[in-house]
Design brief:
By secondary structure, the protein is of the alpha/beta class. The chain has 13 helices and six strands. It has a single domain (3-302), classed as Alpha/Beta hydrolase fold, catalytic domain (Rossmann fold, 3-Layer(aba) Sandwich), CATH 3.40.50. The chain has helices spanning 25-34, 54-65, 76-94, 96-113, 130-140, 152-160, 189-192, 205-219, 240-247, 266-271, 278-282, 284-288, 295-302; strands at residues 3-9, 41-47, 122-128, 178-185, 223-229, 254-260. It has a six-stranded parallel sheet with strand order 2-1-3-4-5-6, sandwiched between helices. Helix 9 links the parallel strand 5 and strand 6 (254-260). The two termini are 14 Å apart.
Length: 305
């Protein structure tokens, strides 16, 4: 039976200690429940990289807590969790050496999950927060192209698995699993794009454009991409116009839509006057994680499965 692989990539502030990560379980259960096509099966692939830099962040937090000033600071939980883990995870990945460790972990888990994919199988990428940046960086950033640097072989192995792009293992873009849709939740792509000026090794434009053109030539349809934004999520940004700039002429092959979530509820109506207030920022962590249990997000994703 043909398979739709749903590959999840979590963002920052995700720590799990157990046999397997559970961060995507609620959303996957909603997608299974809404599935109407019994001729295809769904396979959950929940990648996990959150523990790669955990020890370093814990050491830093303990060092800061030794300060006599620490106990007098406001928002200690916010500093210790959301801020430290967001900045720490971002710094981790931007570092070439530590970023290579993230890539290796993602590659190992992903290859194991889709090792036996068949020509009629499809891949749907569902990413959260910094996981979106990691995805685009691995697939398209030229900073990984130098063969003598850490991470090169693993990145090229990952690219070899995707139809439309090549790594080092094959000469053709006409092999690999077909990407059927992309879904990004709480994405900070615009912030990361500040490091991606023309000529930068973080500039994903050229490889992204080639990929979209190759995929469109084979599929004869635009690549669906839905970007979900909770209005109270301070990490989430619209990306439609930015990605159109990065994709250039190949933006004609991209069907991208920014979608506000939870915007019509009575609670959001009541909080609207406080939307620019510091109180709204304090609640931002809850909004940033809301996508995993959102019926609206699940309903939108299920349209492409």
């Amino acid at each position: 039976m043909p398979t739709d692989y749903l590959m999840f990539i979590h963002g920052v502030d995700t720590r799990y200690h157990g046999l397997s990560p559970t961060y995507a379980d609620q959303l996957f259960a909603k997608l299974q429940k809404s599935k109407t096509d019994n001729s295809r099966r769904l396979s959950k692939v929940a990648l996990y990289w959150g523990d790669v830099n955990e020890d370093a962040e814990n050491r830093l937090l303990k060092t800061m807590q030794k300060s006599a000033t620490w106990k007098n600071l406001w928002f200690q939980n916010f500093r210790s969790n959301q801020i430290l883990e967001f900045v720490g995870d971002a710094a981790l990945y931007i570092s070439r050496y530590l970023g290579a460790r993230v890539v290796k972990q993602l590659k190992t888990d992903a290859e194991r999950a889709i090792a036996n994919f068949q020509p009629e199988d499809r891949l749907h990428l569902i990413t959260h927060s910094w996981g979106t940046v990691i995805l685009l960086d691995i697939l398209f950033a030229p900073r990984w192209n130098e063969a003598n640097l850490d991470g090169y072989a693993d990145v090229m192995d990952i690219r070899d698995k995707f139809f439309g792009i090549t790594g080092q293992g094959r000469d053709t873009t006409q092999e690999g699993i077909v990407l059927a849709s992309i879904h990004t939740m709480g994405s900070p792509i615009p912030l990361f794009s500040l490091t991606s000026n023309d000529g930068s090794t973080n500039d994903i434009s050229q490889n992204l454009q080639r990929f979209l053109a190759n995929l469109h030539e084979q599929q004869q349809r635009k690549l669906p991409w839905r970007n979900y934004i909770h209005p109270g999520d301070p990490i989430a940004y619209p990306i439609k116009e930015l990605m159109a700039d990065l994709a250039g002429e190949s933006s004609d092959f991209l069907d991208l839509e920014d979608i506000l979530t939870e915007e019509a509820g009575i609670i959001n109506f009541m909080l609207k006057p406080l939307s620019q207030n510091i109180l709204a920022i304090i609640q931002g962590g809850e909004a940033h994680g809301s996508y995993w249990n959102s019926d609206q997000v699940a309903s939108k994703i299920s349209q492409f499965i």
